[in-house]
């Protein structure tokens, strides 16, 4: 999860670089995505995809955990998306040439949405208890 947070920080930095330099900035987005997708897949596996599992697949305790994590994820999404929106409002109000602003803000919005979308799985993966040794198969204990 730390690697995913670092990737999100890198994506945010790419959005900021795009405000200044449209030659290098967009090229940096590709490595950020190449880092994100495998990490996101691993996170989904670790969390058991509980964050987006259908209600019938979960018991009451798991539903409560999922709903709580989703609520936090929505709050994170709203707050983080507010930042690029304010960036667009304030920078767009200036009278200078802002040809890079829409692209940079778009990357920041996409990053905010990705952070918010991953937040429930990150919370569930972080708070999920480790399996009890008695629950593991004998083959699992040997490795």
TrEMBL record:
Domain of life: Bacteria
Transmembrane region(s): 28-46, 72-91, 103-126
UniProtKB keywords: Membrane, Transmembrane, Transmembrane helix
Protein name, entry field: Uncharacterized protein
Organism: Rhodococcus wratislaviensis
Lineage, highest ranks first: Bacteria, Bacillati, Actinomycetota, Actinomycetes, Mycobacteriales
């Amino acid at each position: 999860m730390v690697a995913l947070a670092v990737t999100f920080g890198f994506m945010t930095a790419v959005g900021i670089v795009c405000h200044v330099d449209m030659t290098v900035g967009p090229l940096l987005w590709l490595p950020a995505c190449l880092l994100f997708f495998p990490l996101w897949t691993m996170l989904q596996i670790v969390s058991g995809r509980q964050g987006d599992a259908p209600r019938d697949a979960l018991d009451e305790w798991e539903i409560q955990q999922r709903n709580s994590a989703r609520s936090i994820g929505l709050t994170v999404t709203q707050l983080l998306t507010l930042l690029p929106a304010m960036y667009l409002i304030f920078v767009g109000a200036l009278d200078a040439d802002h040809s890079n602003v829409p692209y940079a803000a778009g990357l920041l919005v996409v990053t905010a949405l990705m952070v918010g979308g991953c937040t429930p799985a990150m919370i569930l993966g972080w708070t999920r208890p480790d399996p009890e040794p008695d629950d593991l198969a004998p083959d699992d204990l040997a490795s």
